[in-house]
Amino acid sequence: MDTLDYAQEIVKELQGSVSGLNAAEGEAMAELLLRSGQIFVAGAGRSGLMGRAFAMRLMQAGQAAFVVGETVTPGIGPGDVLVLGSGSGETKGLVSMAEKAKAIGAAVVLVTISPDSSLGRLADYIVKLPGSPKDQADGSYATIQPMASLFEQTLLVFYDAVILRMMEQTGQTTGRMFGKHANLE
User: Which intervals hold domain SIS (predicted)?
Assistant: First the structure.
């Protein structure tokens, strides 16, 4: 196979993964984010990078959104939401964040492959994504891609779908969002 063949196979896998999304879970997440105070987004590794992209779009859509760990990120409080992207649902640092957020009175949303995980037991809202966790060895979800690539790609597509739904519900347009695009580049 050449790079084009691989790219086409990745798109096929992503199409299969996206077709397994639960619309009601996505709707519940979009509604929660629209009625929340501040939105905090976190994830580890590549899942964290997808979360950063999501936080950027939330900000551009007019939401008070922050990436956990940045020096300008304020404290979380009651009425706020912590959105966690974690394939395994077992990342220790994210578990700690979820425990702290809940103790303060914030809602916790988990987007994961593993709803029956430590984070799943802490979350107020769970969105289950199909995919292959990086430590999976039993072949239960076939992918040619390494580690959790399919989960991370599905995570980004799902996050973008939530943004589009929020835009629709608030009358937001791409043109209005562009006004919040970085201009010191």
Answer: 29-172
Q: Is the pLDDT of residue 134 over 80?
A: no
Q: What is the CATH number of domain 25-177?
A: 3.40.50.10490
Catalytic residue among 13, 27, 99, 152: 152
User: Would you state the structure tokens that stand for residue 151, as one six-digit string?
Assistant: 């989960």
| Structural domain spans, the chain | 25-177
In a 3-state reduction of DSSP, which class is residue 119?
helix
CA–CA separation, 144 and 64 (whole Å): 38
**Cβ atoms 34, 166 nearer than 8 A:** yes
Number of DSSP helices (H) and strands (E) in the chain, helices first: 7, 5
Q: What is the pLDDT of residues 108-121, one digit of tens each?
A: 999 999 999 999 99
Instruction: Round to whole Å and give the CA distance between 137 and 7.
Output: 23
Specify whether 152 is catalytic.
Answer: yes
